[in-house]
Amino acid sequence: MTISITRRAPAALGGSGSILMRQRRDHARLDTMMNRWLAGGADEELDVLWQDIVRMVFSHAFAEETVLWPVLRRVAPHGEELTGRVEEEHQAISDLVARVEKSPDDPRRAEWIQQAFTLIRQDIRDEEDELLPHLRDAFSDRRLRRIGAAWETVRATAPTRPHPGVPRRPPGNAVRGVPLSVLDRLRDLAPVSGPVARRASLVAFIAAGGAGVIFRVVRATRRHGRD
Ligand SMILES: [Fe+2]
Ligand SMILES: [Fe+2]
């Protein structure tokens, strides 16, 4: 029987740098942000908060699909079924958020955002209660910290917006997702004024570095999964 990671002591989850603690911290941060959005406020403030939530959700999920779920499929009984379920959740969140982003003036926008929050909360529960405990069972603390570092590295260069047409599994998600990550991060930078050349070189740096990092991590994850 799996034990949820939600209330376990950090030491039992491999310490602060482990993938389990990194996931739990992100989930808690997301939960706080969603509650703040639901509490209401000025339109402008809620828009900024919504964009922060979107950036966090999609970079977090991309790194899961790239680093975590391939490993989990190798070590967990029914790993295919478990990861298939969260990939469906990620797809549904992506579809819904893409709809919100495409229709900023639709009167159903707030309703769609709340539906997205319900799906995100379901995804968090499935991960903490059912998927992530398998990583605890399968790996040493040291390995959990290495997986945590790989996940964090991919997250730092992952797409930050919904892309419902991108495959949910590597290598297809990395092949299609990395160039989109560049565009997303360019859009994230848009409000910042500055010389165009400087911004372009930053984007080129992210593109080159991000692609290299993601493909290296995908390769390493495959190799380690066979240890
Ligand atoms: Fe997660
Ligand atoms: Fe997720």
Automatic annotation (TrEMBL):
Every Hemerythrin-like domain range: 24-135
Record's keyword terms, sorted: Membrane, Transmembrane, Transmembrane helix
Cited InterPro entries: Hemerythrin-like (IPR012312)
Source taxon at top rank: Bacteria
Name of one Pfam family that matches: Hemerythrin
Membrane as UniProt keyword: yes
TM ranges: 200-218
PANTHER family in UniProt: HHE DOMAIN PROTEIN (AFU_ORTHOLOGUE AFUA_4G00730)
Entry protein name: Cation-binding protein
Species the sequence originates in: Streptomyces pactum
